[in-house]
Design brief:
The structure holds 3 protein chains of 3 kinds. Chain A is α/β, with parallel strands linked by helices. Chain A contains 16 helices and 9 strands. In chain B, strand 15, helix 7 and strand 16 form a beta-alpha-beta unit. Classes of the chains: A alpha/beta, B alpha/beta, C alpha/beta. Chains in contact: A-B, A-C, B-C. The interface between A and C is medium-sized, with 28 and 22 residues.
Chain lengths: ~400, ~325, ~260
């Protein structure tokens, strides 16, 4: 994740170890439907021929699912090489206008959606329960980190409201940051805006420190991943550069992990729920699965729901098919033609006999929701976040 | 109080804003004198004279299509006749001429004006600011002549009183040919196969369409309903649609029977180009988007969800 | 080509809720975000492109307090060479601003001066042409294309209806730039950091030699527009709303 000066990819990513076996391209979530060929990009990196990167529009096709990194027999990080390439395009200023606008919006509005900061908490308006706002001085054990997409996207806002309802019913001592909640920086980092990410890490750690926040529950696996994996590394590097960063240890959990603990502690069980009718298939998000090996918690939650018949995709866990929502793809359509992965996914779910696709990620919800409408399953299938299912069944 | 207005014309056509300027000038309740500059002005002069108290015609080919020559000639006429107000459209031409004229005449200026009145001998204007979300009342400082540029489409010319004013030829006061700023030519927008000004139904898309790849969705709806796809400015800026599809002050003015605005916030430049539509429907996520104040019907939702659904329903109803 | 670009920082009010403060002469700005005026951003990009094509310098200028410096830093990161901020309260109107800018610019070396065609706050679109007149140089408003000739510029002006008119304009000249003339580049945070070393001069009005002038306009009041006729909202899910709209369109004879 270090800043790559033009022409030193080889050193930055140790790409000489690459033996051009092509496992990365073979496993890639989008290589079948787009021009993205990671092996070729790795070769460009090895040869240091990155002067013509502008011509490689497909660099923006990568969803940053991370499967190439998982599969690389030499333990290289091809996904990071792509971020490095994006980074050099970002520094050069020539990037797709939609990506440009998203990044600029993070700078001005603190979210990539181009929506005003002052409307970040509008989703709260329809809620019946009172939520603590940590930024207004209220104290809580946990910060529920909503994230940009679940704050602004009308469909995903319902997950945020469901989360509030569920955590409140379960007696969890939590609060939110409301309008003051910052962008976590995961998407800017994946889009190659290293400097912006560093700035967000610095600002956000300072903000968490200021409000005494040490325990965080995230709605999004992307926020989870960046808080857990990228923040410590980035903070360490910034400290080495003499940037003043508060020394705080963050205890971050994706909400499915948190709920799993409640189950283990006996604070959440099937007795507390009404019957749910449906055949539920769980779609592993890349940022929980491939990137963080978190497979069990969401399944455990779904399994205690009375009446829910849980089935599995053939392609699951670390082989789960990426929905193409991450890696900045919300702001870059990519060169891909043919069927979107999300369509393939809802078709698979339909074939497997599911009538509910359970997700645990705002991007998956967004892409699969769209796909299930496009594929014509509106009447027969629902795409639901696990929080939404719980909100529906909890007494 | 005398108000001078500029009769704007281009390539043989008199612009609507000429009559809107007369309409605005009438709010100040007095004699309206129109200035008509260039060549081949006889027809224009008659049309303008119908509603103006007087038309001053300066035939001089050095003035035709040259905004600098316009500025100098208008300046000379105003200096001589000293009208209380000089008024023209806040058009592209107005944006070039009016501020320069104000400096030449040492006059106060207000542009993009949507309301005008006189109070105790001073001119008061109403302007819409901050993206149309706020109105402001401003008073121009005392001066021999004030310069006003009105927003196109704000002052209706529908009920202008007939005056059949006198047409007076004036010798060109232009001292010398303008050498520093030479008009070369007009360049047509790159023409596509589609003329959005002729369509009865426009499916118009704005920033909310989010991506070029979502445009086929709009085309599909247009096909289903027998309409044409148009757009707001950002879509052209992004090169997602050609310029001849753009509705608004910097694009085309359209008056279709049905105007469906998808993901268009309703910036005034856009609204000015479409508010003549018979029925306007706005589909936008933001209920506070200004487009809802010109629309008769609205859907507050994501256009990417509504648009394909609408296409389906229309196909159903047709079959 | 030496180009001076005048820029302004404006609040983003496109989507935000806007309210008028108790005094009725200004909007409440606490919850708004601010950025370089959109038109000005295109102007800065165009100036930098001219420099990159040929040679020369780009100087960006703004008038206002220290909080306005970020848009200058950003322009420096885009590729401008030098920035000047005239340290004073926001001028009362465009005429007062034009007077300050004219006084500043007349002592600078330049071939071209760029302004945004208008600003996103008050959309007056007068400052550029006023400055040109005060400087005694040629100008063109709403410029959407620039081609450098020998000693002059071929400039395209955007007219209504998508039509353009082409002028040949002798240098020095001033243009007000319309959006869409180019595709402004992205300015990265590390780019802004690196541009910190570039010169940013702060001048007082006295340094500039500004003489006081009276504003042309005095603001009486600002107020929110009356709630007017609001569209009849068709409710329900996207599908339900679409179904109702489809029936309505059919009923009214759209198809």
């Amino acid at each position: 994740m270090m800043e790559v000066e033009e022409g030193n990819f080889d050193e930055a990513y140790d790409v000489y170890a690459c033996m051009q076996c092509g496992k990365c391209t073979g496993s890639c979530a989008v290589s079948l439907r787009s021009d993205l060929n990671i092996r070729e990009l790795m070769r460009i990196a090895i040869l240091n021929k990155n002067e013509d990167l502008e011509k490689h529009e497909e660099i923006w096709d990568c969803t940053s699912c991370g499967i190439c990194t998982v599969r690389c027999p030499r333990d290289l990080k091809p996904a990071e090489v792509i971020i490095g390439m994006r980074s050099s395009l970002v520094e050069g200023g020539t990037i797709p206008v939609t990506v440009r606008d998203a990044l600029e919006s993070v700078g001005t509005n603190n979210n990539p959606w181009g929506r005003p900061k002052s409307k970040r908490a509008e989703w709260l308006e329809d809620l019946d329960v009172k939520v603590k706002n940590i930024s207004e001085g209220e104290e809580a054990e946990y910060l529920l980190y909503i994230g940009c997409t679940a704050s602004y996207d009308p469909r995903i806002q319902s997950v945020s409201r469901a989360a509030i309802n569920v955590l409140t019913k379960l007696g969890v001592d939590f609060g939110i940051l409301g309008e003051e909640e910052p962008c976590c920086g995961s998407e800017p980092r994946m889009m190659g805006e290293t400097g912006l990410f560093e700035m967000l890490v610095e600002d956000n750690l300072t903000l968490f420190d200021e409000f005494g926040i040490s325990k965080i529950i995230t709605l999004s696996p992307h926020a989870y991943n960046t808080f857990v994996n990228d923040y410590p590394e980035c903070a360490k590097r910034l400290k080495e550069d003499d940037v003043e960063i508060p020394d705080i240890e963050l205890e971050v959990k994706h909400y499915t992990q948190f709920l799993e603990e409640l189950i283990d502690d006996g604070r959440l069980d099937g007795e507390m729920m009404n019957e749910f009718s449906g055949t539920v298939i769980y779609h592993d998000p890349c940022y929980l699965g491939k990137r963080n090996n978190i497979f069990e918690p969401p399944r455990k939650i779904l399994n205690i729901i009375p009446g829910a018949r849980c089935i599995e995709f053939d392609r699951r866990e670390d082989r789960s098919l990426c929905c193409e929502g991450g890696g900045g793809r919300m702001w870059a359509e990519g060169t891909g033609t043919g069927e979107r992965n999300a369509i393939i996914r809802v078709n698979d779910a339909n074939q497997d006999g599911a009538n509910v696709i359970a997700v645990a990620c705002p991007f998956c919800l967004s892409t699969l929701e769209d796909a299930h409408v496009t594929a014509g399953y509106e009447e027969t299938m629902r795409v639901m976040d696990i929080f939404e299912i719980l909100d529906e069944v909890l007494k | 109080m005398t108000v001078y207005i500029l009769a704007e014309h281009r390539r043989g056509e008199l612009m609507d804003v000429t009559f809107e300027s007369i309409s605005a000038a009438r709010r100040l309740n007095d004699e309206v004198v129109a200035i008509l500059l260039g060549t081949d002005l006889a027809d224009h002069a008659e049309k303008v004279a119908k509603y103006a108290d007087k038309v001053l015609v300066v035939e001089d080919e050095r003035i035709e299509n040259n905004t600098e020559a316009y500025t100098q000639v208008i300046g000379e006429i105003i200096k001589k006749d000293k009208p209380k107000v000089f008024l023209m459209g806040n058009t592209s031409m107005g944006m070039d001429i009016a501020p320069a004229l104000a400096i030449d005449l040492d006059s106060p200026i207000a542009t993009d004006v949507v309301g005008i009145s006189e109070e105790g001998g001073r001119i008061k204007v109403n302007r819409s600011v901050y993206n149309g979300k706020v109105l402001s009342d401003l008073v121009l400082r005392e001066a021999e002549t004030s310069v006003i540029a009105i927003r196109s489409g704000e002052f209706s010319a529908a009920d202008l009183e007939e005056k059949n004013g006198e047409i007076t030829k004036v010798d060109s006061p232009l001292k010398e040919t303008i050498e520093n700023k030479k008009f070369l030519e007009f360049v047509e927008p790159v023409a596509g196969a589609v003329d959005i000004t002729q369509a009865d139904v426009l499916i118009s898309v704005g920033r909310g369409i989010k991506d070029k790849d979502n445009l086929p969705m709009a085309e599909e709806l247009a096909d289903a309903v027998g309409g044409v796809v148009s757009c707001s400015r950002p879509v052209v800026d992004y090169d997602w649609l050609p310029k001849d599809r753009q509705v608004g002050t910097s694009g085309k003015t359209v008056k279709p029977k049905f105007y469906l605005a998808f993901g268009i916030s309703g910036a005034f430049q856009h609204v000015a180009g479409m508010k003549g539509a018979t029925m306007i429907v706005a589909i936008n996520k933001d209920i506070k988007a200004p487009i809802f104040s010109v629309a008769q019907y609205g859907i507050v939702d994501d256009l990417l969800k509504v648009m394909p659904a609408l296409t389906e329903k229309i196909k159903e109803l047709k079959s | 080509m030496d180009v001076i670009v005048c820029v302004k920082k404006v609040p983003d009010t496109a989507e935000a809720d806007v309210s008028v403060d108790a005094g009725g002469r200004e909007i409440n700005k606490e919850r708004l975000t601010f950025a370089i005026n959109e038109w000005d951003n295109y102007a800065v990009e165009e100036a930098i492109r001219l420099k990159e094509e040929d040679e020369g310098t780009v100087t960006v200028v703004t008038v206002g307090g220290k909080d306005k410096e970020d848009i200058l830093r950003r322009s420096l990161a885009m590729g401008a060479d030098k920035a000047i901020r005239v340290d004073m309260e926001d001028p009362e109107d465009s005429f007062v601003l034009a007077n300050v800018l004219c006084t500043l610019i007349k002592d600078q070396k330049f071939d071209l001066v760029f302004f945004g065609a208008q600003s996103g706050d008050f959309n007056s679109g007068v400052t550029g042409a006023m400055v040109a007149r005060m400087l005694g140089i040629s100008h063109a408003a709403m410029v959407n294309g620039v081609e450098v000739l020998d000693g002059s510029i071929k400039a395209s002006r955007e007219l209504e209806g998508g039509l353009n008119e082409i002028y040949e304009i002798k240098l020095p000249a001033l243009f007000t730039i319309q959006t869409g003339i180019n595709e402004p580049r992205y300015v990265s945070i590390s780019g802004i950091r690196k541009a910190r070393k570039k010169p940013l001069d702060v001048m007082t009005p006295e340094d500039v030699g500004v003489t006081e002038v009276k504003p042309m306009l005095s603001l009486e009041k600002m107020y929110l527009p009356p709630p007017g006729k609001i569209a009849e909202i068709i409710g329900g899910s996207p599908e339900e709303a679409a179904a109702k709209l489809a029936s309505l369109l059919k009923e009214k004879g759209a198809f």
